[in-house]
């Protein structure tokens, strides 16, 4: 196996464009996860409910912000799972713990999203 050399660092606008490309690549990878697609549907559904029930623009933007946090946490959870699967292809306690903790982070963020939507819709 050949070792690839590290590409030279980019700076300025080239760095910005490269970072945007990496983010798009991450989104493409995340889109293959069924959990991400379900969470995106949850966010869209809750946003639609808020709009239908006449939520204010700040309330809708708050929901959108928490939704983006959920997507970020899901991306980190997926990254943890990819790394753990690479490091421990068989079963191991550390792998189970890492995946369980990532799942907990996602569940807490979903809880925050649902609580926020409930408060906006009830008040």
Structure description:
- It is a single chain.
- The longest helix has 31 residues, at 57-87.
- The protein is built from four helices and no strands.
- It is 80% helix and 0% strand.
- The protein is flat.
- It has 123 residues and is mostly helical.
- It has helices at residues 13-30, 34-52, 57-87, 93-122.
- The model has no long low-confidence stretch (mean pLDDT 95).
Percent of residues in beta strands? Answer: under 5%
Largest sheet: none
Overall structural class, as computed from helix and strand content, comes to mainly alpha
Q: How many beta-strand segments?
A: 0
Succession of helices and strands: HHHH
Distance from N terminus to C terminus (CA atoms, Å) equals 61 Å
Overall helicity: over 70%
Provide a compact summary of the structure.
The chain is mostly helical. It has helices spanning 13-30, 34-52, 57-87, 93-122.
Helices and strands in order:
Layout: H1 13-30, H2 34-52, H3 57-87, H4 93-122
Helix pairs in contact: 2-3, 2-4, 3-4
